[in-house]
Amino acid sequence: MESVNSTNNQEKVASPPDWLTRVPVPIFGAPLGLLGLSLVSAMNEYLAKIPMLKTISLILGAVILITGILTHMTRWAIRRDAFMRDLRNVAIAPFFGQIGIAFLLLAEGTRELNGQVAQTAFLAGSAVSSLLTFYWLFIGSRQKFALSGVTPGWLVPPIGLLYVGLLAPVFNMDMISSTALIAGSISAIGSIGLLCTRLIMGPSLPSPAKPALAIAVAIPALMLLAILESNALRASIFANTLFFTTAFSYIVSIGVFAKIMNGKFALSWWAFGMPLIAAAIAFTAFSHIHTSLFISVLANASAFLGLVIVTGLSISSLDAVRQHFAYKAK
């Protein structure tokens, strides 16, 4: 009897931890939000008066990014079946593109601190975003299409490509900028169209996935930032259309976020972090070109709300972790 108990205990010790099978792919919302906060805090004239804000959010974002990558590498090593199941799922796999976007945010945030680190982060982010897009299209083409497979995650690869195109000239990679922007725009339009079709025709999105619709805010915001880089287009009707599209989607998302705050915290809430901050960055850049009280107020208010939202999500995340371990201890 003792021998049987000993064998069972050894098997329990030897077996990989079950929690690795349940680690969600989109765990990179936190570093995206924090790294985005480091950028907007440097751009906004009021938040820039708190220099430690950029430094702290940049360091925390980088640390959590590395932790997330190591977590998924551990999944691949000892829970490969669960990892590969997610990687082959056309609805889930696109969320791996968050890693590429996080590296691009890190590249922009460290550009003035360490050029070599920023260049390396940009190359890593560009590679991950590009390869993930090709892989996403590959697995999608090999599976029978169904609207049930269309999720907000389909917006992540286009965002990655748009961001690559936006940052490429900054890192002396002008030759890939236009290609990335065009590819990102086309794939964004296609993904938004399919997602809207699913929302209208069904099946409805699972409740935990609905907050991720906020990811869409980042698309017109990044397109607007790209347009503002062009002297010929920054004052065009196209730029104004993108501004109001971003403003409308931003206000709607803020309203939705305020509504769901009454519920229990979920990891998907982090989907509001980076997109809303991307909008704040776009508003700030737009305010530097178009002087208007409305635009100025929107830019400052969105930057401040970005700080409040990321701080609130960080506190909620820490509290959720505390509760988890407190429950386990019982």
From TrEMBL:
Q: Where found, per UniProt?
A: Membrane
Domain of life of the organism encoding this protein: Bacteria
Q: Per its UniProt record, what InterPro entries does this chain match?
A: SLAC1/Mae1/Ssu1/TehA (IPR004695), Tellurite_res_ion_channel (IPR052951), Voltage-dep_anion_channel_sf (IPR038665)
A GO cellular component annotated for this chain's UniProt record is:
plasma membrane
Keyword field: Membrane, Transmembrane, Transmembrane helix
Q: Which Gene3D superfamilies match?
A: Voltage-dependent anion channel (1.50.10.150)
Q: How does it sit in the membrane?
A: Multi-pass membrane protein
**One Pfam family from the UniProt entry?**
SLAC1
Q: Which residues cross the membrane?
A: 25-44, 56-78, 90-108, 120-139, 145-168, 180-200, 212-230, 242-261, 267-286, 293-315
> What Gene Ontology terms describe what this protein does at the molecular function level?
monoatomic cation efflux transmembrane transporter activity
Do you know which PANTHER family this protein is assigned to?
DEP DOMAIN-CONTAINING PROTEIN, TELLURITE RESISTANCE PROTEIN TEHA
Specify the protein name: Tellurite resistance protein TehA-like permease
Origin species: Sulfurirhabdus autotrophica
